[in-house]
Amino acid sequence: MKAWLRRTGADFWSSLFLLLLSGAVINEAFNLELGTPRNPGSGFMIFGAAAALGLFALRQFIVSLLSLAHPKESAADPIHWGRIVCVVLAVLAYILLLEPVGYLLCTFLLLTFLFEILEPGYWVTRTIGAGLTSVLTYAVFAKALKLGLPKGLITFF
Amino acid sequence: MWTDILYGFKVATTPENLLLCFIGVLLGTLVGVLPGIGPAGAMALLLPVSFKITPVGTFIMLSGIYYGSMYGGSTTSILVSIPGEPASVMTCVDGYQMALKGRAGPALGISAIGSFIAGTFSVVGLMFLATPLAKAALKFGPPEFFCLVLMGLTLVTYLSRKSAEKALMSALLGMLLSWVGLDLINGQSRFTFGNMELNDGIGVIPLVMGLFGISEVFTELEKGEQIEVIKTKIRNLLPTREDWRQSTGPIVRGSVLGFLLGIIPGGGGIIANFMSYIMEKRISKHPETFGTGEIAGVAGPEAANNAAAGGALIPLLSLGIPMNATVALLFAALLIHGVRPGPLMIQERGDIFWGIIASMYIGNVMLLVLNLPLIGLWVKVLKIPYRIIFPMILLFCLIGSYAISLSVLDLELMLGFGVLGYLMRKFDFDTAPLVLAFLLGPMMEVAMRQSLLLSQGSFMVFFTRPIAVTCLGIAAVLLLLNLLPVIRQKRDRLATVEVK
Question: Rounded to two decimals, what is the model's pTM?
């Protein structure tokens, strides 16, 4: 399985994804109604663009399938999942907690995590830095520029 | 015209606009110096702040970031051999060699002065060409507009540094994303999945912040390298007489070449920088000296990328069509303020057009002042660890996206586009065509449907009007060139050589 995955390469997966996506969009375009050339409907241009995307994706998919017989080195750089997944999950948690918990606390927690992720250690300095940055940015954006950042649990500031 | 220019200076020299110009060029230089965030990312970060200022001020500040980054990119190229901006990639070759020989000062000096001369030249060109082009564009109807946009998108994909076929797919994906929301003609909901917030469509700010800001952070996170700045005293920033003798020709040639390349869709600073280097090496009496610290290899490319920045504003301001991703953000900024760039803007909002022209003169002078005496400061900036910079970029992206409509959905979309942008880079898809197509998609759809309504369903309307059929013909030729295997393989080989 791993060997087969290695051989398939980036183009196989990207073209498969785009092929499936264009199929779904074409289906939706028919639901929206294509109309006629005299009176184009909401799905008219969507159908055209999705069909073109599907054709290009199909061509690339077929080429990548044929190349399975003669695998060559994948053109795409390998994806180093670790740090990226951690940061995405951290930012997602931040987004979901922002309104109930509030900007100050969420930002402090997020920055503490992010300052640590590239080079762990010196957590005292980084915690203080995260706290100061949260308060400073809140003062600038929420108080001075009057952007409506959520207060959440900390209502007195 | 002279009264218009004086009016422009009157607009540009208000205290608020002068301050915004200064902030723009300062941020642009900073962004140009720092690898890992480009002018597009910085402009995306500042788009929400632009709600608080006037349309003129917004454009002055953001365009300052755009041409300011061309100045800043050369500093990192010369001192670190890493291009601060893609538009300074060829400056690394001879600029770093000059620094190794103890001539970092003259390299930085000629780069700044050459950029100033070229920038001023391109503003003059913009001043003289934009108005007549805008007058011609007033004759365009929906069929002409549709075909022009189609040609522009096809050119962008043709000139993509990566696979042209993937660039086309990227553009088509951008178009599909632009049609999420209410149909502009009959009000039907499309791809909203029952979410009322999506009726207004996908916001341009979450999209560009995600694709440029967040995805760049993810890309740099993978590397996590610390930059090593060359340890040399930077002396004698003013070039010698001999330096001037060797640089004058390249600066003049680079200015003209860069300006013309900037007008072409998808062109801009990157191609101008590259082509100027090739040209100077070809016409030099001693081409073997290129790559060993030849000052012409710094002067020409740096002049070219700055001239291209001015040239790229011509299609935006006179036709209302942005021809590269960074200029597309300027387009988005004006749209947010309810100003539609194009031929009518020059007539109806002369304050914006002439204010921009005048501010570019002022901005170029500011940049010369910023870049020569403050070189030491920019060197210190280069040493700030990336582990401090990237959380701040992420935080500003989050604040900026949330601040538009206080919507968590915008944050989710931004994160999603950040992941998409990162995966597109890994899978070798160009993100610029997606952004351009996203911005132009709604207008393209309206133009197409209006054309068919006018012609009562006949597609011949695109083939019987001279401007429309010319644009269609060019688009068809470029598509064929993109797809013909022999030509595609040659382009892909050239792209591989360029990347190496």
Answer: 0.77
